[in-house]
Amino acid sequence: MSRGTGFGQSLRSTTSLRIDPRVILASQILELNQAELSEAVESELNENPALDRIDDHEEGPTRDEIMRHVAPSELKPSGECHELWRSLPKDAGSDFDWVEMASIKSSLWDHLRAQLSHKLPGQCGALCEYLVGSINERGYLTCTPEEAALDCDTSLEEAEMAIEALKSCEPAGVGASDLQECLYLQMRGAESDAEKLARLILKNQWEELVQRDARSIRRAYKVPMELVEEAFEVIVSLSPFPGEGFEVSSASSTERVVGAQPDIALKRDEAGWRVDVQGPSPLSLRIDRTYEQRYRELEKSRSDKGEKRHISEFVERAQAFLDAVSQRRRLMAEIGKYLIDRQTGFVSTGEYRFLVPLTRSQVAQDLGAHESTVSRATNGKYVEIATGEVVSFDVFFKPALRVQKLIEEILASENPDSPLSDESIARLLKEQGVQVARRTVNKYRDRTKLLSSRRRKSA
């Protein structure tokens, strides 16, 4: 028997998770704002011959088409429809939200919130939101532990612990108070000699590093000049702005956005409140009648496979698109109703003193949705409130915004001849149920470029 010949048999079992393309499409459609959705609809109409627009002069949608969008559960097949049940996705009856598994371009703040919420105890939710909201677009922390403790009514030790947890989040360097700390945090996992030396330089020889004084560093650590140069190269390769890798949502602006198109409008009339979801309606679209009829015929025949593949591909793609648009519209309407119930004072008057603390995770929990789903539905989008003002969704989810706006309102109504001090502003805020320290008032004034009382009087 030849020893060079052998026979073997192996059995390899692998498990992989494939996300339904329809789920990914639904996720992508949910992220779009009104203008982007309109462009997506026009693009799909141009590319997919099986998708058709219902013109005003045409016959309106049928009862089944209306029920499919208004009450889809009423059209679910019964247990006797074995063949139709067999053709449905395996997870069709599951309550699991598969949309949360699809990709999303999360913001820096969503990314940090997801990490920090798991690092802190459950009772630190307000502190978590405060710290994440205090991270600027470059990834730096703009508050001190003392400010966080005072504003969140917690101990200094707990605030310092939370900040340390924030600094351990990704991207590396986030949560730092200055450039030196930011670069030092990025060297946590130093392994090579050059990386370890770079870490020491960042910690102890910052001035020498700024002056590029390699000789002083070489003498301090008694290492070859080549190693010092390698350490310099490591430091230069670090990112001074860890938040740059994330897209900055246009919704980060807290001011009224001129020309912004609202995605939902919260309106009130004699009949009460109503939520108008803006943008294309799925009821204005349908599957082309010719394609739909041919699709049904081909299901029952064994005709040309090429035609069957062509018809099936476009009809199923059109149906998936309609379902995604319908799902987006329903969720936006639910969020609008939720805001009317929870933020009635603000959406009625536009006065920021009526805003109550609210987070996306709380909205998701109350609506029975996943937090990432609510984030997709609200990031970069706008709301028209009853006063006609168009505001970012972020005004409902950023606790610091309420304080900032209240300070602006107080300063707008003060006596120009006797401007209010920061301490007086803090006292007026306390009367309105907002407990902040004087230094916090000073911080928010700096953020909004508002002058101090002395300089306001001289102005």
Overall description:
By secondary structure, the chain is mostly helical. Among the domains are: 19-67 and 99-106 and 250-397, no CATH class; 187-237, no CATH class; 399-458, Arc Repressor Mutant, subunit A (Orthogonal Bundle). Helices cover 51% and strands 5% of the residues. The strands form two sheets. Strands 3-2-5-6 form a four-stranded mixed sheet. A two-stranded antiparallel ribbon has the order 1-4. A hairpin with a 5-residue loop joins strand 5 and strand 6 (390-392). The longest helix is centred in the C-terminal third of the chain and has 38 residues, at 305-342. It starts with 20 loop residues before the first helix and ends with a helix. The relative contact order is 0.12. Mean pLDDT is 78; it is low at 1-17, 74-96, 249-258 and 455-459.
Structure keywords:
single chain, 459 residues, mainly alpha, Arc Repressor Mutant, subunit A, 22 helices, 6 strands, 51% helix, flat, disordered N terminus, disordered C terminus
* Cα end-to-end separation: 103 Å
Order of helices and strands: HHEHHHHHHHHHHHEEEHHHHHEEHHHH
Work out the radius of gyration: 29 Å
Structural classification = mainly alpha
Question: How would you state the average pLDDT, rounded?
Answer: 78
Low-confidence parts lasting 5 or more residues at pLDDT below 50? 1-17, 74-96, 249-258, 455-459
| Helical segment count | 22
Q: Numbering strands along the chain, what is their spatial order in the largest sheet?
A: 3-2-5-6
Q: Main beta sheet, described? A: 4 strands, mixed
The helical percent reads: 40-55%
The number of distinct β-strands equals 6
Strand content: 5-15%
Please tell me what the overall shape is: flat
